[in-house]
From TrEMBL:
Organism annotation: Aquatica leii
Name by which UniProt lists this protein: DNA/pantothenate metabolism flavoprotein C-terminal domain-containing protein
GO molecular function: catalytic activity
One Pfam family here: DFP
GO BP: coenzyme A biosynthetic process
Gene3D superfamilies reported in the protein's UniProt record: CoaB-like (3.40.50.10300)
PANTHER family recorded: CORNICHON-RELATED
Family as reported in the entry's similarity comment: Belongs to the PPC synthetase family.
Record-annotated DNA/pantothenate metabolism flavoprotein C-terminal domain positions: 38-91, 165-283
Entry superkingdom: Eukaryota
Length: 314
């Protein structure tokens, strides 16, 4: 059975660096609320579910963090302030463009003479320069805050703390929940302290349902914000129904559905009024365009409509 969300918080301790992160979130939000700008919380990457308190083994949710990291860049481009709540070591805005050995291969080591210098290879400057310029701009204007999680419990503590700070932005706050969040876990009081020993034979692991945090998030924590959740499925025939069911149940504004295999080039927007696809053609992909560019454009248009409707009511 799913435990209630309040019970989850009362039985799971916050991460050890929680107070530091809460302080950072508070300061960041207070600073940006003065400038009357729109703000987005982007969640990204998968949460883990530990099998032991001293964790050697864990269950993971699938997500590289591409959706979240790419989207954060496009939100910055559109003038949003960004809180990027992401899984440790998942992809991050800007650095995501240089994964593996790619960045090293772009550099040249010049060891001639008394001093060593490092330069970007001339044929790579056009690739690095625009990304570096956007990165520098985001850093210098202080418009992005990076906060990390690993376990589903860390994620929930930080998600609630972020929402508490975002509530003051009311309708100017956008929540873009792209993280892949565990639905099953082992409650803290049922987890062994130490590494499960293979000598005792194959363990039988019993997982319980994690409470859906979308429920208190929408109704209590940020009731005036524009909340967008993602729905991941592997069976296309149930995607839209599941997305619409989630919207009906949690009463938020938009669900973006995607199928694991086609998530790079197709998503379905499910709104209270209708459904529509946002697609990247093969040609657009070959030209280096990213689906997140169009997703973010469409989400911002929905957020703008929502803001106009809210303003009109007053
Ligand atoms: O990172 P990439 O590799 O680019 O992949 C991107 C993605 C496929 C992970 C992303 O586009 C995506 O679909 N993310 C959401 C995955 C997910 O958690 O789907 P879900 O059907 O399990 O959950 C639906 C919603 O409920 C989510 O918004 C989640 O935040 C919320 N949830 C889930 C579990 C839980 N216990 N509480 C929740 O509130």
């Amino acid at each position: 059975m799913a435990s209630h969300w309040e019970e989850f918080y009362s039985t799971h301790l916050p991460p050890s660096d929680f107070e530091d992160n809460r302080k950072l979130l508070k300061e960041f939000c207070e600073r940006h609320n003065k400038s009357n700008q729109r703000i987005v919380l982007v969640t990204s990457g998968g949460t883990t579910v530990p099998l032991e308190h001293n964790t050697v083994r864990f269950v993971d949710n699938f997500s590289a963090g591409t959706r979240g990291a790419a989207s954060a860049e496009y939100f910055l481009e559109h003038g949003y302030t960004v809180i990027f709540l992401h899984r440790v070591k998942s992809l991050e805005p800007f650095t995501r463009h240089f994964t593996g050995q790619m960045f090293m291969d772009m550099l040249e080591l010049n060891e001639r003479g008394p001093s060593t210098t490092i330069t970007v290879k001339p044929d790579c400057v056009d690739i690095v320069a625009p990304i570096l310029a956007r990165y520098k701009n985001a850093q210098e204007t202080g418009r992005i805050l990076y906060v990390t999680f690993t376990t589903v419990s860390d994620y929930f503590w930080l998600l609630r703390a972020a929402c508490e700070c975002l509530a003051a932005f009311e309708a100017k706050a956008l929540l873009y929940l792209a993280a892949a969040v565990s639905d099953f876990y082992i409650p803290s009081n049922e987890m062994p302290t130490h590494k499960i020993q293979s000598g005792a034979g194959a363990p039988t692991i019993s997982l319980q349902l994690v409470p859906k945090m979308l429920a208190p998030l929408v109704s209590l924590w940020v009731p005036h914000a524009y909340v967008v959740s993602f729905k991941l499925e592997t069976d296309d025939s149930i995607l839209i129904t599941k997305a619409r069911d989630a919207m009906t149940k949690y009463k938020h504004k938009l669900v973006i559905g995607n199928i694991l295999q086609s998530r790079r080039y197709r998503v379905v927007f499910v709104t209270p009024e209708n459904n529509y696809e946002v697609i990247l053609t093969r040609e657009q992909m070959l030209n280096g365009l990213e689906l997140e560019d169009s997703i973010v454009d469409n989400v911002i248009a929905c957020h703008s409509d929502f803001l106009s409707a809210v303003t009109y009511k007053f």
